[in-house]
Amino acid sequence: MGTFQFNYQYLTLLCTVVSILQAVVAQSRQQPKGGGGTYRIINGTQSAITEFPYLVSIQRRTSISKDHICGGAFINSDWILTAAHCLADETPETVIIRAETSFHERGGTLLRVGQLIVHEKFNGSASKDYDYGLIKLRKTFRRAVPAKLKNGPRRFRPGERCTVMGWGQTATTSISKRVLKATVPIVAQRICQKAYQDTEDEVTSRMLCAGYPNGGTDACEGDSGGPLVCRRKLTGIISWAEGCAESNYYGVYSYVTPMRAWIRNYTGV
């Protein structure tokens, strides 16, 4: 009987350790790639895919699971726009897209990937600049509802209220199962540059900032690559920040307008 109890206790302990290790591995797989954090919606509100039908969940797939890693947005029936750091260590075989659902872990339509494109000047180990990525679907998805991209060189004025959305973590440590949204104001470029002047990160002309001086509402882990929408136009791609919803720091987005020619060259959009 003593031997049986020892083996049973040992087996229970072993199962507990394995479960903990699996949870740690799953969490690590959702961490940022190539510099610049993935993002979560802090102090956001619940939304639905019907409000943002172009939003997709970019997922890493294995033989046993599909794990949400980033957001993205349809820009036509063949292409999705996202952040480069979401794709830097992936291949078309390791990525799958979940579309048409408010929940990243269930429902909707799964779409296979044909090609991943990371901006040629993106180097996540050295800089957060040029954080632009494109995903080409293996097959045209006729039901895709594309986001409209911002045109023209003029930036939105500081204070312009925009919407950011995604499935990332909330104020807790777990990823939100349902899509969330938050409203954040555009921040003047010079103010954002000053906020980050004592850090290792540079806010370039290919970036724009949004958020509140006192923090409290922002995007963070799990939402990288998702859209920042201003006046119903996809204006920015969630890229990086110092922490999440931290005071005196703002969310930084890859600005779509300077890359319109690059996007058009690949996608025709």
Automatic annotation (TrEMBL):
PROSITE patterns tied to this protein: TRYPSIN_DOM, TRYPSIN_HIS, TRYPSIN_SER
Catalyses which reaction(s): Preferential cleavage: Arg-|-Xaa, Lys-|-Xaa
Gene Ontology MF annotations: serine-type endopeptidase activity
Keywords: Digestion, Disulfide bond, Hydrolase, Protease, Secreted, Serine protease, Signal, Zymogen
Gene Ontology BP term (one): digestion
Organism placement in taxonomy: Eukaryota, Metazoa, Ecdysozoa, Arthropoda, Hexapoda
Main location: secreted
Role: Major function may be to aid in digestion of the blood meal.
Subcellular location: Secreted
The enzyme's E.C. designation: 3.4.21.4
Family: Belongs to the peptidase S1 family. CLIP subfamily.
Top-rank taxon: Eukaryota
Broad enzyme group: hydrolase
GO CC aspect terms: extracellular region
Domain Peptidase S1: 41-268
Name this polypeptide is given: trypsin
